[in-house]
């Protein structure tokens, strides 16, 4: 039986360690939206992370179902999509905005509703560790 691969749940700050072509699921806070390019910029400044990461989500495939509140600055949204490009920040040359930029082709996007960001940030890495241990067994 074949079909699309499942998405891998990760923190937005962990996206630079992923590979181009991977299907990921993450959440982020809307910091910008360009109607001209159909790109939604998301961030999640995790306190333990030293570098800033911007997820640039191409939402052109979702325009018919995209709601205005999902593009509002400050809104938290969930995204499932494919990584199409990674532009890491480095000491010598920084990507635009002085942060890593991860380009995502958005497949699904929905509002998070009420949630506890600290609990989410603590739980997601633990889920990935448990999955890795199960895969190794």
TrEMBL record:
Origin, by domain of life?
Answer: Eukaryota
MF-aspect GO terms: single-stranded telomeric DNA binding
Entry GO CC: CST complex
- Kindly name one Pfam family recorded for this protein: Ten1
Which Gene Ontology BP annotations are present?
telomere capping
TM segment ranges:
none
Q: What is this protein called?
A: CST complex subunit Ten1
- Tell me what organism the protein belongs to: Diplogelasinospora grovesii
